Amino acid sequence: MDFKQMVKKRRSMRKYKQDQKMDDEALLELFTYASMGPSKSNAHPVEFLVVEDPEKKKALAELKRFGTKYLADAPQIIVVMGNDTSEPTWIEEATITSAYLGLLLHAEGYASSWINIREQTNSAGESSEEIVKKLFNIPENYGILCLIPFGIPDEWIQSRKYFDISSKVHKDTF
Ligand SMILES: Cc1cc2nc3c(=O)[nH]c(=O)nc-3n(C[C@H](O)[C@H](O)[C@H](O)COP(=O)(O)O)c2cc1C
């Protein structure tokens, strides 16, 4: 598919077919390609955790006040992490990787969405990031950027319409 068409067609979709999961070999290939973006000092500090356990998915569904309920029904969820929060650029690194993941999943026929975790809280005011770390035994020096639920789509959201961003583009001076 033409790359620009692919960018237009990728939309956040939140309903997935229940019976189809990506196997371990395909997951490893997905993460390999998602890790091929630019990386400070070529350090590649981003790591992934795949969630398939129904009880853990239910716990993730309560992670924020809004926008997480459908996680209980996602076949697979990727936790995108940086492995050293003493280096603040883990956030850029994990963001680049997550954007690649969305496009790569789309290219493979999967739909996905993005749930930000950093600096978020649940309905009791507890840190979403700390809850994720505890749930999966993730070491303290890791940072959690986002969750990416994905699966074969069970809903269809139209391609992006062309939108005019010319007012946001500046040249030589603001
Ligand atoms: C930083 C960030 C946080 C987001 N948080 C959520 C979220 O908590 N729940 C959710 O369902 N979607 C979330 N999204 C997805 C957006 O809602 C979605 O990208 C936006 O509505 C544009 O739609 P599109 O991705 O289909 O173009 C988030 C996206 C980003 C980049």
Summary?
This protein is of the alpha+beta class. The protein has five helices and five strands.
Structural descriptors:
alpha+beta, NADH Oxidase, 5 strands, globular, five-stranded antiparallel beta sheet, 5 helices, Nitroreductase-like, oxidoreductase, 174 residues, binds flavin mononucleotide
Describe this structure in words.
This protein is an alpha+beta fold. The protein has a single domain (10-155), classed as NADH Oxidase (3-Layer(aba) Sandwich), CATH 3.40.109. 30% of the residues lie in helices and 15% in strands. The chain has 5 helices and 5 strands, in the order H-H-E-H-E-H-E-E-H-E. The protein has helices spanning 3-9, 24-34, 54-61, 90-107, 128-136, and strands spanning 46-51, 76-82, 111-112, 115-116, 143-151. Strands 1, 2, 3, 4 and 5 form a 5-stranded antiparallel β-sheet that branches. The radius of gyration is 17 Å and the shape is globular. 29% of the residues are buried. The model has no long low-confidence stretch (mean pLDDT 96). Flavin mononucleotide binds at residues 11-12, 14, 67, 113-116, 157. Keywords: Oxidoreductase. InterPro entries: Nitroreductase (IPR029479), Nitroreductase-like (IPR000415).
